[in-house]
Amino acid sequence: MVRSRKSLVAVSLLAALxxxxxxxxxxxxxxxxxxxxxxxxxCSSGASVSIxxxxxxxxxxxxAVTASGxxxxxxxxRVTLASGMKRAVGSGVLTGxxxxxxxxxxxxxxxxxxxxx
Length: 117
Prior knowledge:
- This protein is of the alpha+beta class.
- Helix content is 21%, strand content 51%.
- It has one domain (2-116): Quinohemoprotein amine dehydrogenase alpha subunit, domain 2 (Lipocalin, Beta Barrel).
- Strands 1-2-3-4-5-6-7-8 form an eight-stranded antiparallel β-barrel.
- The N and C termini lie far apart (53 Å).
- 19% of the residues are buried.
């Protein structure tokens, strides 16, 4: 009986989280402008990328860069950007209108900031 109650509670909690997470992550939905800075002088810096977030899912607003990733309920974001053979992975935190974090690629790394458009 105790085991079945624990299972029922666990299933209920997972179901509730499944329903809550997308609506909370949707708080970050919209278009974002991301400024990318490199910490290595040999790597290009100052690039700007436009991304869109819908129901917590990240997508690119550009045909030149493919973006994918997810925003968690507290604003934690993980993103992968790809352009041709180049690929970078970033993580950080979004708030209602801005965000920041770090990124890394094969030979370069740096920081990023974001503003909601």
